[in-house]
Amino acid sequence: MLDDEIKLGAIQHLSEIIQILDEQKREELIDLFLILQKDQKKWRIRESISHQLTTLSSIYPIDIVFTYIVPIAFKFCTDTVSIVRD
């Protein structure tokens, strides 16, 4: 349980951390969001990512936004957990 809390805490600040990295490192880390949001049992992680989508959209180039972030946003719009959809 403690591992999950630590993981969630780190994920909650992931966009802030990514902001300070150079562009190449940012692009390497975008896959993290794809991997992390796939687990349907961990709605808190998906909710945390959903709150960071606006920030992520502003720090990534438009092609990455359309390739990675927009599909995640659309997926969250139909999530089974209402707080993630919101």
Q: How would you describe what is shown here?
A:
There is one protein chain. This protein has one domain (2-85). The N and C termini lie far apart (26 Å). The protein has six helices and no strands. With 86 residues, it is an all-alpha fold. The protein has helices at 2-12, 14-19, 23-36, 43-59, 62-77, 82-85. The radius of gyration is 12 Å and the shape is globular. 79% of the residues lie in helices and 0% in strands.
Helix and strand arrangement:
Blueprint: H1 2-12, H2 14-19, H3 23-36, H4 43-59, H5 62-77, H6 82-85
Strand content: under 5%
N-C termini distance: 26 Å
Which ranges are low-confidence, i.e. pLDDT below 50, for 5 or more consecutive residues?
none
Which secondary-structure class do the elements indicate? mainly alpha
Give the helices and strands as they follow along the chain.
Answer: HHHHHH
Percent helix range: over 70%
DSSP helical segment count: 6
Shape: globular
Tally of distinct domains: 1
| Main pleated sheet | none
Rg computed from alpha carbons, rounded to a whole number of angstroms = 12 Å
**Overall average residue pLDDT:** 91
Q: What is the number of E strands?
A: 0
